[in-house]
Amino acid sequence: MTIFICAPDIFSGDAVGNHCLGIARCVRRLGYDAEIYAQRFTVGNHDIRPVENIFKDIRSDDILVVSYSILDPFLDRLLQINCRKICYFHGVTQPALLQDIDPVTAELCQRSIDQLPKLCGFDVVVANSLSSKNYLSGFINGSFVSVIPPVFYDMPIFQHKPVIRGSDSSAKRLLMVGRVVPHKCIEDGISLVSMLRKLQFPATLSVVGSMPNYEYVKYLINFARNLNILDTIEFNGTLDDIDLFYCYENSDALIVMSRHEGYCVPVLEAMHFGTSVVVRGGTAAEEICLSNDVMRFDDDLSRWVEVLLERLNSPRPDLYTKKGQLFLERSNDGIWADILFIDGRHIQ
After folding, report:
1. Each residue's pLDDT tens digit, 205-253
2. For residue 90, which of 66, 74, 110, 54 has the smallest C-alpha distance?
3. Are 183 and 176 in contact (CB under 8 A)?
4. Whole-angstrom distance, CA of residue 150 vs CA of residue 89
5. Which of 36, 147, 197, 301 is most buried by its number of CB atoms within 10 A?
C-alpha cells in the first residue's frame, strides 16, 4: 500500500507545500511508501510528479490524501478514484479580501467556496484548525471533520535550538512572516512602525515571504514612502532556513495583521523562538498564541501601539515555548496513523 499525496501547488517555503512534504515524511516513518503529486511545483524537485499521473499510478488498496486550499480543477476526478480518500482542509480566503488588488485570485477563491460541498465525498476530512472546521461545517457535516495542526516536529525550524540574544537598546525589530498578499494587511504593520517612531520609539519592520502580487508590493512601497519610513522597512522575500532562523532570533515581536488565517504557522514558529507575538483577532491565529496577545479591537492601531510597547519591554519566552510544544504534540505520527489507517490497525 502506498499513500498518494496531492495538491494544486507544492512550492518550497510555502505552508501548504511544506505540509504535503511533512505528511510524506510522516508516512515513511510509519513504514509506508509515499508519492507526491501537484499541478504546479518547484522545478527540479524530483520527488513531485505531475498530478495527471496519479490516475494511472494509484490502486484500490492505496490511500489518497488531497490537500485543499483553493479551487482544484481535478477534484471531481480525484473523488472518483476507488480507494480510501482523505482531504486536508487549509481554509479558503474570503474573496472580498482580495477583490480590489487581486481579482484573479479572488475569483479562484469564490469558485473554491462553491466547490466545498463536494468535500463530503471523502471518507475523512481533516481541518488545520477549529476555525477552519467551523467554517467548513457550513458546507458539509462537521461531525466527521477532525482537527490536526499543519506542522510536524521534524520541520527544520522546530529542530533548531534558538540562540538566546542579550538585551539590545537599539531599534526594536518587528517581523511579519507569510505571503505578501492583500489579506495579510502588511500596510497596517507599516503604519504601526510609523506610529511608534512618532512616539520617539525607534522601530523597524522586516517582511518575510513570497511576493506574488506586483501591484500590492508596489502599493506597499509607495505607502511606506509616503509615511517617510521606507528606509525602516525590509522586504526580504522567501528566505532559506538559516536566514529565517536569524530573523526570528533577532526580532522583538511577530505581528500578524491578517484578516484571514487558516492556521498561521509563523505564530508557532515565533513561539518556538520565544519571540513575542501580537495577532489580530478573528482568525485561526488566535487559537495558537496566548489570549493576551490577541487584539480584539481590530482597527484601532493606537491600541496596538500600547500593547506592543508593553510586549517589547517584557517578553515571555518560557510561556511561549511551552504552549508551542503542545501544538506539535497534536500532530504527532500516532495521530496521523489513526487518520490514515483507521485507528492505526494497519500499521506495520
Report:
1. 999 999 989 999 999 999 999 999 999 999 999 999 999 999 999 999 9
2. 66
3. no
4. 10
5. 36
